[in-house]
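Entry 14. Ran structure prediction on the chain below.
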Amino acid sequence: MSGNSDEATTPGADWDALAASFDDEPDHGLRDADVRRAWAARLTSWLPGRPGDVLDLGCGTGSLSLLAAEQGHRVTGVDLSPAMVELARTKLAGRDAVFLAGDAAAPPVGEQRFDAVLVRHVLWTLPDPGRALRHWRQLLRPGGRLVLVEGVWGSVAPVGIPAGRLTALLDPLAGRTRVERLSDDPSLWGREVTDERYAVVATYG
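Output, C-alpha cells:
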C-alpha cells in the first residue's frame, strides 16, 4: 500500500486496480539492480542481524518482503488489497513467507509476536497513526524494532507525515529511536528527489 515515487497516492485509492502496475515504480518493483541493491543494504542495517520473524505491513506486491526473506528472515506480509497479496504470494513462492489480506493498523496475526515490524509509506494514510504505533509496538518481542519508512510528498498539496511528527508519536512508547534521511540517496528511488523521505528505527527492550 505504498505511495508512489512522485507523489503518494491518496488513502482512498483502489489498490486492487493499481496492483498490476504497482511494480512499475522503481522503488516498488525493485527491478533495477542498483535500486534493489540500495534497498537491500538499507534493510540489512534496519532489520535484526540474525534471522527472525518480520511483519511487513502494507506489503504491496512483496518487494521488501522478498529482500527480507533473502536475508534469512521469516516474513508475514499484510495488505488491504487481495490483488496485492496474490502478487506477493507469487513473488515469494517457495520461500518462508505468508501473506494475508487485512488492515495494516490491526493486522490479522493473532497472538503472534515479531522481531521487527516493517512499514513503508503506510502510516500517513491511517486515521489514527498514534494508535497504530501503539498496537504495532505490542506485536514486538522483547528487543524487537519498528522500521518505519515515511515522508512528505508533493509540492502543491503535500501529503505524508514529517519526521518530527513521527518521532513525537513514538516518544511515549519509550524506545531507542534513530532517524535516517533517505532523500539524498537517489539509488533508492531511481532518480533524484527533493521532498522529505526518511526511515525511523525504534528498538524496544
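Residues 18 and 84 are 9 Å apart (CA to CA). Will compare against last week's run tomorrow.
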